[in-house]
Fold this protein.
Amino acid sequence: MKTRILGGAALVSLIATMAVGLTLPPTEEQEDFARLIAIHPAIAWVAYVAFGVMALGSLLYLIPATRARVWDRLAAASAEVGVVFTALMLVTGSLWGRPVWGVYWTWDARLTLSALMLALLLGYVALRRVTVEVDRRAMVSSIAGLAAVVVIPLNHFAVTWWRTLHQGRSLVRVSPGSELDARYIQAMLLGFVAMTLVYAWLLVHRYRLEVLEEEQGDVELEAAIAERRAEATEVLV
Amino acid sequence: MLRDAALVAGKDLRVEARSRVALNQVAPFAILVLVLFAFALDPDRGVLVRASAGLFWVAVAFTALLAVQRSFAIEVADGARDGLRLSGLDPAGIFLGKAGAVAAELLALEVLLAAGVVVLYNTDLHGIGVLVLTCLLATLAIAAAGTLYGVLAAGVRMRETLLPLLLVPVMAPVVLAATKASEAALTSAGTDAWPWIRLLGAFAAVYLAVGTVAFGPLLEDA
């Protein structure tokens, strides 16, 4: 029931974001594409939050005092939702970059880092897919999740130096406060609320799915054991 | 711990000396990668010379994937991993030993690749000292990260395809920094290389530290 309310709130705020975002006036520099501000920063925010939650869940699982399956499931759910939002962040960014920067992709530090973040999340999700036994999967993927967090700052240093040591390329970035009127900031904030709610709703459902999958695994194992037992008794009789 | 590391590294290198997988399969593959780059990039226009630092490190990254696969293939076969687990050796020592063996193999392959770059791409080597330091630090970082992810993937199905996906984003900053350091060494006096070399040192330290801590639980559970 509570999830329904969360889902309803997510839906309403998403529709409101669409309504507000699509009716934003086109700007002089970026024309219609400026309206992507209603969703792109919010999606990026959620992508980082999802990565952070995955990291936190992994960390809490690895600390013996707080070790519980709930953290592993949370990390798993957040990583999978994070893949969607990180991919969406790259897609919406590219859609905006093509008309405004003239290219879909540029080797900007932040873009490169986002792409590597997506690769790390995909690796984490792939690792979970191929590991069957629940406790082992939790341990292995928690370490992978935490290692991914260690890798991010390393990539950050390398990539930032790479793009700044040689050419000082300044990209026009949309940042709140720079010649944006209040409507734009409102649309962006509304987008933050909507995307965060969508993330929370997806996270709750993905978490429940994780629980169900674990239960199904247990049920199937028991059924298989019962079947073998039945075979054995047949032979004996 | 260091004695255990030396034991494990010695074992892995002895396996390599007797099976010659790295020598007979990985080394020719590494040279073939260099040849492929020459096909992809027009050899006449000097692209190869200008890009040789980057191509060298990409080739190293590919061979590192194979070396790590091999390093854990010998543990998975015949349940050798159970032997390692039961041997009573310090897990940190096992990690350092396996990483050390992979690093030694990679360094040998890098010497070969460097010779390949000089011969095939006609690249002049400058700043040998800086290049050697770059190779040492980058190889240490790659071997440590590779060994960590190698044991992580060793226990799972489809590890051959999973390992590259896990390892490449982790090697990416090392490849980037090593390329920049080598480029600086090749083109100038090598002074531009120092920030990158320090970064490589930091990578190596971080990956070695994470691996030393995480290897024990992974070996137990994987």
In short: The mean pLDDT of chain B is 86. The helical segments of chain B are 2-19, 21-40, 47-76, 80-86, 91-121, 128-154, 159-187, 193-221. Residues 133 and 197 of chain B are 8 Å apart (CA to CA).
